[in-house]
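Moderator note: this is an archived Q&A kept for reference. The question asked for a predicted structure of one protein chain; the sequence and the answer are reproduced below.
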Amino acid sequence: MSLKGKAAVVTGGNSGIGMAIVLELARQGASVVIDYVAHPEATEELERQVHALGDQVIGVKADVSQVAELQNLFAAAVKAFGRVDIVVNNAGIETRTSILNTTEAQFEKVMAVNLKSAFFGTQLAAQQMIKQGGGGRIINITSVHEDWPMPGNTAYCLSKGGMRMLTRTAGVELAPHNILVVGVGPGAVATPINLTTMQDPLLLKKLDSAIPLGRMAKPEEIASLVAFLASDGASYITATTIFADGGIMQSSPGL
């Protein structure tokens, strides 16, 4: 599996799953653009790690909930590497609020960061890929909650459900251009977004017991799947979601 000569953009790329994806794509030989909105020091450290692997990398500060900043992100990628072959719409947030108490501001922020950014990220990626020719890969980091209800986190589930249909519809629409659109749906992953659970032994034990494999995923396990989907080995996969959940969707009624 080699991504040598490919240029990738990863949104929300300086922490959690995004950071692991950046490093794995770089290990496979891709040049990488790291999108971030905070913690520039983390981005600089990640750039050093990628350079140590012998690959090219740039960090770009861009709020992907704003289309103008997404446009700047893609312009920076093309300026740096001449093309865009792989886009990973990874940026995401949650509020852990129910339908009864989610505010308008919370709802709009979740939708903007999770769904709007993925929609326009897909649009801008496809436009660039069509312009340069040769097809490309758009990978949307969704969640088991694109399918699976999570009471108490309604806006997040809605945003991921929207990403599900974005993946399916865009995958069909862009197939004539050889642009493949695939979702990756993680279950519970050991990242900062799950820090509260990870720091509570009782909550962590309850979660682990609900997962057939008996543990949360490592970010690197999600990243390796993304790298595969970006490679030639996944050239016949599009308009669908690949779940990486340790079997939890098949064994538990919901979280």
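Archived answer notes: The chain is about 45% helix and 15% strand.
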